[in-house]
């Protein structure tokens, strides 16, 4: 029997945190404010939030702001917004920089106890020594020397200080390279977005995280599995500083085919103007996928549905879009759009006058209410449908009824120019082979449909691959269409289905131009 196991709603696994007590669990989501949240961060945020709630505990959103060279307030604001979008507000919002004083003092304690030393070995050499398990020439510096260099030279960012870093004195020969005297403090003269020019030295992630976790009362630190080599280092820091133990719980990182999940690489696309911004629908950011038509529920279901596997796999986007489809399919209003460059007019003999009738927005979900559909004797079909028709054939107009095709006019290339037909509402639509989408010719609204491709061509970039060598030449596709008048009632952000085309999200509606983005549905075909 598991201790403290919790069944998480909609998840296909139990969360079983070691040492977890109901009401006392504290988790944290620690983004670095160096970019917008991407889907990997969303997984971390959702897991931390879900686990905290399952144990009636607390979630801390902590900005891990220890590197002023990469971070900014703009990113911090965007991350908080994105968390809110995901329904995550946190019980506290904190910053690693709130603890710069404490961390500085802990570093001094470590030096005094002979557990840290200043090292001015050139970077390349230090790296090589670490790889080979060699002792640094500076490892045996005296406590006095180390204190002087750290608190006078490094702290003030002097020329001598800049040459040095502070390293934890753990074990330079350890099989686990993470324990080979990791760097814990480094100089940086760039002013910090919150602490200004107060500090010229900044703690390194591996030193900062265990200390702040412990000080903030975090009981369970969730980390992606590739950090597991660093778990013993995390424990070492807590023990060396006589700090409270924190349980580390590993979870699988998510990666997706043909997708870059690195803020630095995404920033490159923004800087090169290959995308207009971080919310681009081709970006794996929370903003990007939401613009593409992802729902918060779909995203949560996908993440919690992943199960307890700790294998890092390269996921296909179809999996997550299929999870999203389950959410949007039952509630997306059904509308009609036709490719406006390939339209065929149909004249109905003895057809109706132009008028509207109410039809359900969704045949299988009457709760969604109704929409007005224009009926007329002048209809429009898509060329692709028209060209497949035969004279004398009985077909069905969707949401209306059957008709008999009487005459088809084609030009010498076989392109259909016009059709005349006779309504046959007593026909049996269950027996017809073709159910066609149509519009009343007098009442259509022009729209723009867009579809997108992944930014890179290779499924999985390997070590040594340069992503710049694998850029997809064309990633945005635009088509013009005409839609039924119900598109006039949509708001930006609404997700609908254009019958027989797929799901679309209204992305913008400016100067009378409605632009819809196609929402992938996990079936992997373009719909425009
Ligand atoms: P990036 O390389 O994009 O900057 P990062 O890991 O350095 O990513 P952080 O802001 O430090 O970004 O990460 C915040 C949290 O999100 C961390 O807990 C991290 O483990 C988690 N995280 C980042 N990427 C992924 C991913 N692909 N899958 C799952 N969790 C992730
Ligand atoms: Mg990071
Ligand atoms: Mg990273």
UniProtKB/TrEMBL annotation:
Cellular compartments per GO CC: cytosol; methionyl glutamyl tRNA synthetase complex
Cellular localization per UniProt: Cytoplasm
EC number: 6.1.1.17
Domain annotation Glutamyl/glutaminyl-tRNA synthetase class Ib catalytic: ranges: 24-329
Tagged with keyword Cytoplasm: yes
Keyword line: Aminoacyl-tRNA synthetase, ATP-binding, Cytoplasm, Ligase, Nucleotide-binding, Phosphoprotein, Protein biosynthesis
Main location: cytoplasm
Catalytic reaction equation(s): tRNA(Glu) + L-glutamate + ATP = L-glutamyl-tRNA(Glu) + AMP + diphosphate
A GO BP annotation: glutamyl-tRNA aminoacylation
Glutamyl/glutaminyl-tRNA synthetase class Ib anti-codon binding domain mapped to chain residues: 332-422
Entry's family note: Belongs to the class-I aminoacyl-tRNA synthetase family. Glutamate--tRNA ligase type 2 subfamily.
Protein name: glutamate--tRNA ligase
Organism, scientific name: Eeniella nana
Organism lineage string: Eukaryota, Fungi, Dikarya, Ascomycota, Saccharomycotina
Name of the gene encoding the protein in the UniProt record: GUS1
């Amino acid at each position: 029997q598991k201790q403290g196991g919790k069944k998480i709603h909609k998840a296909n696994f139990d969360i079983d945190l070691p040492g977890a007590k109901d009401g006392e669990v504290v988790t944290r989501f620690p983004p670095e404010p160096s970019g917008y949240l991407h889907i990997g961060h969303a997984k971390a945020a959702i897991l931390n939030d879900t686990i905290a709630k399952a144990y009636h505990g607390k979630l801390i959103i902590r900005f891990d702001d220890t590197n002023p060279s990469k971070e900014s307030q703009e990113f911090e604001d965007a991350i908080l917004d994105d968390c809110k979008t995901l329904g995550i507000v946190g019980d506290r919002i904190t910053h690693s920089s709130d603890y710069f004083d404490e961390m500085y003092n802990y570093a001094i304690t470590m030096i005094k106890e002979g557990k840290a030393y200043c090292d001015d070995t050139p970077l390349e050499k230090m790296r090589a020594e670490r790889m080979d398990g060699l002792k640094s020439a500076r490892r045996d510096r005296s406590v006095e020397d180390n204190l002087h260099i750290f608190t006078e030279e490094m702290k003030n960012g002097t020329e001598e200080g800049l040459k040095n870093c502070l390293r934890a004195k753990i074990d330079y020969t350890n099989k686990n390279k993470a324990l080979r005297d990791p760097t814990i403090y480094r100089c940086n003269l760039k002013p910090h977005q919150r602490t200004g020019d107060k500090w010229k030295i900044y703690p390194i992630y591996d030193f900062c995280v265990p200390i702040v976790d412990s000080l903030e009362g975090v009981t369970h630190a969730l980390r992606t599995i590739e950090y597991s080599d660093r778990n013993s280092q995390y424990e070492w820091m807590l023990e060396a500083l006589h700090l409270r133990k924190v349980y580390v719980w590993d979870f699988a990182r998510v990666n997706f085919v043909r997708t870059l999940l690195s803020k630095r690489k995404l920033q490159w696309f923004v800087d090169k103007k290959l995308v207009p911004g971080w919310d681009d629908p081709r970006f794996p950011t929370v903003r990007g996928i939401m613009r593409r038509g992802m729902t918060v529920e779909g995203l949560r279901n996908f993440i919690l549905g992943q199960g307890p596997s700790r294998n890092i796999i390269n996921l296909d986007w179809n999996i997550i879009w299929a999870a999203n489809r389950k959410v949007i399919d039952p509630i997306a209003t059904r509308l009609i759009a036709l490719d406006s460059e390939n339209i065929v007019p149909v004249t109905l003999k003895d057809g109706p006058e132009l008028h509207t009738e109410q039809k359900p927005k969704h045949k299988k979900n009457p709760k969604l209410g109704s929409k007005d559909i224009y009926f007329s004797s002048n209809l429009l079909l898509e060329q692709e449908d028209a060209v497949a028709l035969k004279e004398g054939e009985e077909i069905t107009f969707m949401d209306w009824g059957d008709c008999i095709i009487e005459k088809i006019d084609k030009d010498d290339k076989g392109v259909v120019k016009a059709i005349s037909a006779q309504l046959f509402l007593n026909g049996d639509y269950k027996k017809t082979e073709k159910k066609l989408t149509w519009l009343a010719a007098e009442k259509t609204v022009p729209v723009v449909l867009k579809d997108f491709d992944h930014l890179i061509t290779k499924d999985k970039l390997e070590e040594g691959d340069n992503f710049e060598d694998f850029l997809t030449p064309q990633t945005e596709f635009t088509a013009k269409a005409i839609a039924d008048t119900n598109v006039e009632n949509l708001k930006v952000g609404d997700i609908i289905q254009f019958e027989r085309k797929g799901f679309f999200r209204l992305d913008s509606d400016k100067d009378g131009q409605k632009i819809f983005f196609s929402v992938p549905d996990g079936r992997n075909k373009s719909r425009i």
